[in-house]
Every structure is written in structure tokens, then in C-alpha cells.
Amino acid sequence: MKVVIVGAGSVGSSIARELLSHKHEILLIDLKPEVIGRSGLRGAHWLVGDACELSTLQDAKLDDADVVVSATGDDKVNLVVSLLAKTEFGVGRTVGRVNNPKNDWMFNDSWGVDVAVNTPQLMTALVEEAVEIGDLVRLLTLQTGVSSLVEFTVPHDSHVIGLTVGDIDWPEDSTLVAILRDQAPITPSRDDVLDGGDELFFVTTIAAEDDLRALLSPRAAAGPGIGAGRGGRRPPPRPAGTAGAGGRRLRRLNVPPAKAAAEDPAVTVHPAAVTEPAAPPAQRAW
Known about the structure:
This protein has 286 residues and is an alpha/beta fold. The protein has helices at residues 10-21, 34-39, 54-59, 75-87, 119-131, 209-216, 257-263, and strands at 2-6, 25-30, 45-48, 67-70, 93-98, 115-118, 136-142, 147-153, 174-181, 184-186, 199-205.
């Protein structure tokens, strides 16, 4: 894959070094010729010039590039390069570095940016993800601002504990893609029971984030979406012992409680869960 990187500073050079280790063809464009000697990049191609000039991009044969990365410290340059790469050369994918978070709204397809990398926002998300429990944290913006990857850590007093994934009526444009439990990723299914401390990862549209946040907030405990499932009906209460002891991944099984307890000592059978079969109705004598 041919990748053109505009800006050979610390960010651009680091990207180039990683891509070179993955055997990609790299061309760096920078105004300062002295960066070539101090970069220490072996195997990279260089072009000294102003990437905002159409002639420089023509010299770089941008129409042959698979990806253009605008990694300078100037948002104006990054926007102009992305726009020219997309409109004049038809580059398939452009990545733009956002230096000032106030300019983030401009880094979209109107300016030819396919992926905006907002470093301050990413660092904020990582900090919030580490310390925020019980709140929805946006980790990454996808598809030029249309969708996002968000994370929610289930508090140990959350109303969703003990519910299965299928019990909850998730917002229409939100999809639960992974559960991280005990440092192990789980591919979610309808029968997986949620437990305190679970990290839930969703791909959702930006517009649906508020609905997802409202659904997972403590105020939604008695709401229609909790325990209702996709069919809109609330399932019957689950006997004690069927929800995640020790944070393990458990599924509801169509197994009699006594048999389940015999097969797995960790299963606790609630007395109310064991019922005697009903006696057949007495036959009426005619």
C-alpha cells in the first residue's frame, strides 16, 4: 500500500516508522529539508515542498496513493491537503490530524477528510474510560462523524445487573459489539447476563448516543426499555442464582434446577425455583 504523509514532525515520523515496519511504501512531504537527516527513517521516500501547492502534490503522484495522511501541526494545512487529495486526485482514503479541538467540526467529508484524528479528544476519552464508571464514554468517531465507538462500565449497583442482553430494548441505531469481563473479551449473545464491572462496547450513531446514555442511566431503572426486550414485553423474573456469580459468563439453560446444581456446584438453586409437578385433575364421574 502506498501512503503519503504530509508533515514529517514527531507525529508524521512515528506514523511512517510504524507503516514501514508493516512493509508499506511511504512518501513523506515536508517544507524543511533538514528533517530528512534527523528522522532516522530507512526505506522512506522524501519530497521537499509545500503540500498546499498543487504542483507539489502532482510531483508526489498523489493519484497513485492509497492513503494520504495530513499530520502537520497546522489545521489549515491539514484541511487543504485533504481537500486537494480527495477532489483533485481522487485518493481513496484521507486521514487528517486535528490539533485544535475547536476545529474538529470542519474535519469531515466536506473538506475531504475521511477520518479525523483528534488527539486531545482521544486522550480525554482514555482518561474518562479509566475513571468514569456508570457513564457513556466516546472512544472513537467513525465514518467521518456519523458513528462512534462508545464504552460503558456497569456500576455494581446498576439496574441492568442480572438482565440478559436480549432483555434490554437497545436503541435502534446502537449495537453491542463486545463485553470485556475479567480482562477477557466476550462476543455478546442474547443470553449473556450482564454483571457489575462489565465493560460494554457499542457502535452507535452520534444521534443515538443520548438514547443509549438515558437507557443505561439509573433513572431508566423503571423505564420501558429495561427488561422489555425487542418484543416490548417484560420477561418473567429470573430465580436467584442464575445471574453471574463471580462475574462469570453465564447463559440461561433449559435444564431443571436440581440437575443444574448437580452438574455444577457453583449453581445455587433457590427453593422457589423447585416446584412439584401439578397433580392431574380428578376425573368427573358421570
